[in-house]
Design goal:
Blueprint: H1 10-32, H2 34-45, H3 48-76, H4 103-122, H5 127-139, H6 144-171
């Protein structure tokens, strides 16, 4: 004999209706904002083990941009102005001798490195130890092959600086 109580399907239909409304809203957002669809497609391609880190990087950068827009840039010591179209999330490790398209690229890289070093050195006396502590912390996170590449690069830069100084002394342009 069947259950004499009538089935109360109203809560189930209400829950289904709420679910359908939410799905419709998401579908509408995807339809109306093609960048959101691209965002979702890219996110789905990020290896699952990388997602937490990539998301944390994006959250940190967006938080700095929002703080800068709200006038907090004075407290931060810099202003976040626009996205960097050349930003990279993943580290690159050279697996072969790099090929440069122009001599100018090498010169530009040297100028950028020198500009950064000069900016660090001309800051107030308290900045250098902070910069060094931050660099040390990030250096400890580098894989061994990247740390070795950085050491090689540092030795190369020191060698170049010493040769430039010697040439300037010889020419009297010290």
């Amino acid at each position: 004999m069947g259950d004499p109580r009538p089935l109360d399907l109203v809560p189930a239909f209400e829950a289904l209706s709420t679910l359908m409304d939410a799905a419709s809203a998401i579908a509408g957002e995807l339809r109306d904002d093609p960048l959101l669809a691209r965002w979702m497609a890219v996110f789905s391609q990020i290896p699952p083990e990388d997602r937490r880190t990539v998301l944390a990087v994006l959250e940190r950068e967006v938080a700095m941009r929002v703080a800068s827009e709200s006038g907090a840039d004075g407290a931060m010591g810099f202003r976040v102005t626009h996205p960097n179209p050349n930003a990279r999330i993943y580290s690159r490790v050279a697996t072969r001798e790099p090929t440069y398209t122009s001599v100018g690229e090498i010169g530009e890289a040297m100028r950028r490195i020198a500009t950064l070093a000069h900016a660090v050195l001309r800051q107030s006396p308290g900045v250098h130890p902070r910069w060094e502590a931050i660099a040390l912390e990030h250096g400890e996170q580098l894989p061994p092959e990247e740390l070795e590449a950085l050491a090689w690069y540092g030795r190369l830069i020191l060698s170049i600086v010493e040769r430039v100084r010697a040439r300037r002394l010889q020419s009297g342009a010290a």
